[in-house]
Amino acid sequence: MQKSIERIAGDSEGVFYEFPAFHFTGADKAAPSAYLQSALHAGELPGVVAIDALMPALNRAEAEGRIRGNITVVPWANPIGRAQYHFGEHQGRFHLGTRTNFNRAFPLLAAPDAALLPDTTFGTADQQLKTRLLQLSIGHDIVLDLHCDDEGLAYLYVHTSLWPAMADCAAAMGIDAVVLWSEDSAGTFEGATIMPYQNVPADVAKFERRVATTVEYRGMLDVDGELAASDAEGLYRLLVARGVIADPALAAPGPFTGFVAPLENIDMMPAPRAGAVLYDVKPSDRVSKGARLATIVHTPGEAGGRTEVMAPQDGVILTRRSRRIIRAGEDLLKLVGDKKSADARSGTLED
Fold first, then answer.
1. CATH code where residue 163 lies
2. Which of 27, 83, 140, 295 is the most buried (most CB within 10 A)?
3. What percent of the chain has pLDDT over 90?
4. Pairing mode, if any, of strands 34-38 and 71-74?
């Protein structure tokens, strides 16, 4: 294993940000390669501890000569967000300088060619970071971007061009659900990873061996040793199943048993009033149309001080907010409906 230190210049003199990247060299140039990163939203830590738990297995595989394809691992992909605190609260989702989501505004390239990346000589720190992360990931057959939601199931975002070919990956990782998408106008990291392959020849796209996904490892508070070990085992199984690592002792993953739905089926359920949220449902619950999902207590102690929120269709609760104070118009949860949502959103679901 080789370790490199990636350095990003800050937006003022004397300020720099650094993050490590670990590189494992494969023995077979024809084998699939893999890139794993976590904490692009710097406060989302389940992926960080999963990678920490995975590294000993990668080191063993290297020592035993079982790494077939190149592997690059970036355990904490966002040193800028990691350093951001405002009034004592960590702020790792948006760059405080540009007010841009760290998982938006990645360059969407016409082809998977690092030469097409923008010159960031005079770019802001977050622009430099995004370009560097793409440079590290371009050319890999497998690209995993590890995130988490507020409270939720373990699920993947997968481009329609990669499904159902990626079902083995979802099964290997023990994922509960897959959300399929087809459009990215916001420039997410996943979009910047897969969109360049959409209009290139099939022998370049190689969709049969390509993996690109945002992995949502449950919720913000699911930073736990047992979960980390389980997630690390899932990542290892994926790398073995796709031929990046050789491990004849490991059985092939079985069929994927979770549920799959298009992004257009998700109801985000904007809060009708501001106040305190009383949830009636939790992630994994199956609900029927008209069932009460939550109650907003907006004028406590007064007649009519509560507003109920009902399910617009049958479906499964994928996620809900971890905090219980909400503003009017903020999304309460993700309900994966059996049908297309009346509030269907293309592209990203939230900022």
1. 3.40.630.10
2. 140
3. 96
4. parallel
Q: How many domains does the chain have?
A: 2
Tokens read off for 106 = 């990645």
- How far apart CA 142 and CA 158 sit, in angstroms, is 12
Give the whole-angstrom CA distance, residue 109 versus residue 24. Answer: 26
Give the residue from 257, 288, 317 where a domain finishes.
257
Nearest to 6 by CA among 144, 192, 130, 95: 130
Instruction: Clarify whether residues 113 and 54 are in a common domain.
Output: yes
Which structure tokens are listed for 245? Answer: 């690592």
Q: What is the pLDDT of residues 145-202, one digit of tens each?
A: 999 999 999 999 999 999 999 999 999 999 999 999 999 989 999 999 999 999 999 9
Q: Are 158 and 35 members of one domain?
A: yes
Same structural domain for residues 71 and 18? yes
What is residue 122's predicted lDDT score, i.e. its pLDDT? 85
Q: Where are the beta strands (DSSP E) in the chain?
A: 2-9, 16-24, 34-38, 71-74, 85-86, 89-90, 142-149, 151-152, 154-159, 177-181, 211-219, 259-262, 266-267, 275-279, 286-287, 292-297, 306-310, 315-320, 325-326, 333-337
Strands 142-149, 89-90: parallel, antiparallel or unpaired by DSSP? unpaired
Q: What is the mean pLDDT of residues 61-67?
A: 98
Secondary structure letter of residue 82 according to DSSP: H
